[in-house]
Amino acid sequence: MGTRIGKLTPSLIALTVLIGACGSEDADLPLDDEIPDEGATTDGRVYDMPDGNNVVPLAEGPPKIAFESRRDGNSEIYVMRADGTNQRRLTRMPGRDHYPTWSPDGRKIAFESWRDGGGEIYVMEATGKNQRNLTNHPKDDYMPTWAPDGESVAFASDRDGTSDIYAMDNDGAHQRNLTNHPNDEDWQPAWSPDGSTIAFYSSRDGAYEVYVMDADGTNHRNITKHPADDGQPAWSPDGQRIAFYSSRDGNEDIYVMDADGTNQRNLTERPGLDAFPAWAADGGSIAFYSSRDGNYEIYVMDPDGANQRNLTNHAKEDLEPAWSPATR
Question: Across residues 292-313, what is the average pLDDT?
Answer without folding.
Answer: 97
